[in-house]
C-alpha cells in the first residue's frame, strides 16, 4: 500500500510538471514588452494614463511578470498585441492571479478607448465576465493590426503579482479543461489521504494521524483559496472570505506542521527550550490565523494590511526555518522514516520560504506557480504519507508484540506454577506411596492396584513436565531453532505414545544446516509457529503421517508442514481456525509469507467429502503449509527504537 501511494504521488508530481510545460507550449505569440506606472490616486482616469504613456513616464518591466511585493500605490500595466496573420484571431487575455482586489482592462485602438470590464475580490464572483478562477478578458484582433492595453490593478497592502498570458479561444478551452482536471485530481487525492489518515486515527487513537488529517485538509483549503477555486465554488458571494481564507488556512497549516514536528520529535521531553520556542511561534500563527476573521482587512488601508501581511509572512519564514533545523538535528538519531520525514520537511520548507519571499517582493515571480506548488505538495504528501503509513504498520506490529509478550509471560507463570507446585506435589505423593508400599505387606490384588496408581502418577509427572517445557522451554536461549524443534518433537512423540492416541501420527522431521543466528524473540516466535503447525495436525488432521521441514536458505527460512489427513477448506472470508490465525499473525510479525494448499488430493470415497476443523468440509485429503521468513527481520527489537 505504501509503495502504491508513493508511486501514485510520484506520477502526479511528474504530471504537474508536464502540465507547466504543456501550458507554456499552448500559448500563442507572447505579449509584447510590458511597462508599468504607479500612482497614489485611485481615481486617475484612463485619459491621464494615456497622457503619462505619451510622455514616457512608464517604466519597462523586466522580467515580464510584475512582482510589486506589498505595494502602497496603484499600478498600471501597459502591453500590446499584434496579429501578423492574414485572418482575425479571437484572443483570451488571462491575469493568472486569482487574488487581486480590483482590476480593470482598457483596450486602445485607433485612438478609441474602451473598458473590457472591472473585476476583483471586492466584487461577487458571478459579476466576472468569464466564470474562471483567474481574471479572463476576451478580445479580437484583425489581420495586420496592433492594439495597446492598459491594466489597472488595486492591490494595496496585499502581495501584488501579475502574470499576463495570451491564448487563442481554442487553445484556452483546451488548457482550461486540463487545468481544472488536474485541480480535481490534486484535491481529490489530498482529500482521500486526509480521510485515510483520519481512519488511521480512529483505529489507533494515535493523535499524530488526526493532526496529519487536519494538516492535509488545511493545505487543501489553502490551495483552493490561494488559486481561486474556493472563491469560484465555495464562497463566491462573500468577497471578504477570499481575503481571509488564504492567510487563515496557511497559518493553521504551518501550525499543524509544527505540531506534527513537535509530536514526532518528542520535543516536550527532549528539549524544553525548543519546545517553548515552538509553542511561542504556534501562538503567533494562531493569532495571525484568526486576526482576519475578526478584522475585515478589506475595510482598512495600506498600513494595517501591510503590517499584518509582514508579520504573517515573517512568522511563516521563522516557523519553516525552525522546523528545518529541528528535523535535521533529530533525523540523525532516527530510522528510515526519520530521513523520509526530513526530505518531506525540506521540500515543504523550501516551497513555503520561496512563496513568502515571493510575496514580500524579495524574489522574482515565475510562471505556472500553481502547477509547481501542486507538484511540490504532492512530493511532500507522498513522503509524509509513506512515513506515517509505515509508522502505522509499526504501531500494529508493536500492538501484536505486546499481545505475544503478555501471552509468553502468562505461559511462563503457568510453567513456573506447574513446575514448582503440581510437579513437586506429584513427586512427593509418588515417593510417599512408594515408601508405604515397601514397608507394609499387602495382598497381591492390593499391590497390583497400588502399582497401577504409581504408574498413573508417573504418567502425570511426565505430562506435567511436558506441559511445563512446552509452555516456556528453557533451552531456547542456548540452542538453535532446529535443535529446539527436534527436541520438542521427540518429547511430543513420547507424549503421543504415552497417551496411546488412536491416530498414531508418525512425525518425520528434517532440517539442513542453519546459516544465521536468530534473536531469542524471533526463535521463540518460530518455535510457536512450529508448535501450532504440529498441534493442528495432531488434533484435527486425522493423519497417519506428517512431514516437517526446516530449510535455511541464503536469504530466508522456509518451513514446510505436510500431512495426509482430511484437509480443510476455510469458509469464505474466514482465515481459518484460531490455530491458523495465530500462525498467520506470527508470520506477519516476522514479515514472512504463509501459503496453504488444502486439500492436496481428490477423494473418491464417501462422495468425496470429509469433515474438518470448524465444521468445514474438504473434498479431498492432505494439507501442505509453506512459510517463508526473511533473515532481514532477525530481530524484533529494532521496531521499538526512536523513530524520529
- Give the low-pLDDT segments: 1-11, 20-27, 498-503, 605-617, 636-644
* Strand arrangement in the largest pleated sheet: 2-1-4-9-6-7
Specify the overall morphology. elongated
Helix percentage range? 55-70%
User: How many H/I helical runs?
Assistant: 15
Tell me the major beta sheet.
6 strands, antiparallel
Rg is 38 Å
pLDDT averaged over residues: 77
Q: What does it look like?
A:
This protein is an alpha+beta fold. Helix content is about 55%, strand content about 15%. It is built from 15 helices and 20 strands. It has a 6-stranded antiparallel β-sheet with strand order 2-1-4-9-6-7, covered by helices on one side. The chain has a 5-stranded mixed β-sheet with strand order 12-13-14-20-15, covered by helices on one side. The chain has a 3-stranded antiparallel β-sheet with strand order 8-5-11. Helix 9 packs antiparallel against helix 10. The two termini are about 20 Å apart. Residues about 1-10, about 20-25, about 500-505, about 605-615 and about 635-644 have low confidence and may be disordered.
What layout of secondary structure does this protein have?
Layout: H1 2-26, E1 35-39, H2 46-54, E2 59-60, E3 66-67, E4 74-83, E5 89-95, E6 102-109, E7 112-119, E8 135-141, E9 145-154, E10 161-162, E11 164-168, H3 169-204, H4 207-226, H5 229-233, H6 239-265, H7 267-270, H8 272-294, H9 302-331, H10 336-359, H11 369-439, H12 444-471, H13 481-499, E12 506-511, H14 520-541, E13 545-552, E14 556-563, H15 578-589, E15 593-597, E16 601-602, E17 610-611, E18 617-618, E19 620-621, E20 623-630
Parallel strand pairs: 12-13
Antiparallel strand pairs: 1-2, 1-4, 3-10, 4-9, 5-8, 5-11, 6-7, 6-9, 13-14, 14-20, 15-20, 16-19, 17-18
Amino acid at each position: 500500500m505504501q509503495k502504491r501511494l508513493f508511486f501514485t504521488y510520484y506520477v502526479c508530481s511528474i504530471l504537474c510538471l508536464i502540465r507547466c510545460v504543456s501550458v507554456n507550449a499552448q500559448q500563442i505569440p507572447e505579449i509584447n514588452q510590458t511597462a508599468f506606472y504607479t500612482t497614489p490616486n485611485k481615481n486617475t482616469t484612463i485619459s491621464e494614463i494615456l497622457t503619462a504613456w505619451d510622455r514616457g513616464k512608464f517604466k519597462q518591466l523586466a522580467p515580464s511578470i510584475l512582482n510589486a511585493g506589498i505595494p502602497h500605490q496603484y499600478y498600471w500595466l501597459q502591453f500590446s498585441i499584434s496579429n501578423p496573420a492574414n485572418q482575425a484571431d479571437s484572443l483570451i487575455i488571462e491575469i493568472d492571479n486569482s487574488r487581486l482586489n480590483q482590476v480593470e482592462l482598457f483596450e486602445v485602438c485607433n485612438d478609441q478607448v474602451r473598458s473590457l470590464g472591472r473585476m476583483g475580490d471586492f466584487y461577487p464572483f458571478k459579476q466576472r465576465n468569464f466564470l474562471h478562477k483567474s481574471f479572463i478578458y476576451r478580445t479580437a484582433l484583425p489581420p495586420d493590426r496592433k492594439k495597446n492595453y492598459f491594466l489597472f490593478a488595486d492591490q494595496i497592502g496585499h502581495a501584488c503579482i501579475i502574470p499576463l498570458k495570451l491564448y487563442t479561444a481554442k487553445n484556452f478551452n483546451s488548457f482550461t479543461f486540463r487545468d481544472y482536471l488536474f485541480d480535481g485530481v490534486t484535491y481529490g487525492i489530498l482529500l482521500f489521504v486526509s480521510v485515510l489518515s483520519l481512519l488511521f486515527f480512529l483505529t489507533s487513537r494515535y493523535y499524530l494521524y488526526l493532526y496529519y488529517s487536519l494538516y492535509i485538509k488545511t493545505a487543501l483549503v489553502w490551495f483552493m483559496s490561494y488559486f481561486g477555486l474556493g472563491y469560484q465554488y465555495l464562497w463566491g458571494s462573500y468577497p471578504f472570505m477570499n481575503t481571509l481564507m488564504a492567510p487563515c488556512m496557511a497559518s493553521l497549516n504551518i501550525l499543524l506542521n509544527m505540531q506534527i514536528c513537535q509530536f514526532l520529535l518528542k520535543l516536550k521531553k527532549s528539549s524544553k527550550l525548543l519546545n517553548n520556542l515552538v509553542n511561542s511561534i504556534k501562538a503567533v500563527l494562531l493569532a495571525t490565523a484568526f486576526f482576519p476573521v475578526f478584522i475585515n482587512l478589506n475595510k482598512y488601508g495600506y498600513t494595517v494590511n501591510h503590517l499584518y501581511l509582514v508579520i504573517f509572512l515573517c512568522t511563516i519564514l521563522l516557523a519553516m526555518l525552525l522546523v528545518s533545523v529541528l528535523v535535521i538535528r533529530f533525523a540523525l538519531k532516527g530510522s528510515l522514516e526519520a530521513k523520509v520525514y526530513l526530505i518531506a520537511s525540506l521540500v515543504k520548507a523550501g516551497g513555503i520560504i520561496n512563496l513568502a519571499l515571493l510575496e514580500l517582493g524579495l524574489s522574482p515571480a515565475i510562471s505556472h506557480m500553481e502547477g509547481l506548488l501542486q507538484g511540490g505538495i504532492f512530493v511532500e504528501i507522498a513522503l509524509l504519507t509513506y512515513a506515517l503509513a509505515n509508522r502505522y504498520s509499526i504501531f500494529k506490529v508493536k500492538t501484536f508484540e505486546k499481545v505475544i509478550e503478555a501471552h509468553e509471560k502468562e505461559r511462563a507463570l503457568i510453567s513456573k506454577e506447574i513446575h514448582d507446585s503440581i510437579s513437586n506435589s506429584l513427586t512427593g505423593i509418588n515417593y510417599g506411596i512408594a515408601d508405604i508400599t515397601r514397608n507394609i505387606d499387602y495382598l497381591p490384588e492390593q499391590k497390583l492396584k497400588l502399582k497401577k496408581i504409581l504408574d498413573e502418577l508417573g504418567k502425570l509427572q511426565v505430562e506435567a513436565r511436558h506441559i511445563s517445557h512446552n509452555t516456556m522451554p528453557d533451552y531456547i536461549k542456548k540452542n538453535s531453532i532446529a535443535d529446539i524443534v527436534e527436541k520438542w518433537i521427540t518429547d511430543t512423540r513420547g507424549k503421543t505414545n504415552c497417551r496411546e492416541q488412536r491416530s498414531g501420527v508418525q512425525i518425520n522431521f528434517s532440517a539442513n544446516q542453519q546459516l544465521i543466528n536468530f534473536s531469542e524473540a524471533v526463535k521463540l516466535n518460530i518455535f510457536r509457529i512450529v508448535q501450532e503447525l504440529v498441534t493442528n495436525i495432531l488434533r484435527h488432521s486425522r493423519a497417519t503421517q506428517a512431514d516437517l521441514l526446516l530449510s535455511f536458505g541464503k536469504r530466508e527460512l522456509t518451513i514446510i508442514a505436510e500431512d495426509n489427513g482430511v484437509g480443510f477448506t476455510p469458509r469464505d472470508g474466514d482465515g481459518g481456525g484460531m490455530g491458523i490465525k495465530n500462525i498467520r499473525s506470527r508470520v506477519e510479525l516476522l514479515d514472512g509469507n504463509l501459503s496453504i494448499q488444502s486439500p492436496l488430493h481428490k477423494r473418491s470415497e464417501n462422495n468425496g467429502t470429509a469433515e474438518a476443523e470448524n465444521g468445514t468440509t474438504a473434498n479431498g485429503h492432505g494439507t501442505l503449509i509453506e512459510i517463508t521468513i526473511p533473515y532481514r527481520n532477525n530481530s524484533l527489537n529494532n521496531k521499538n527504537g526512536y523513530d524520529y
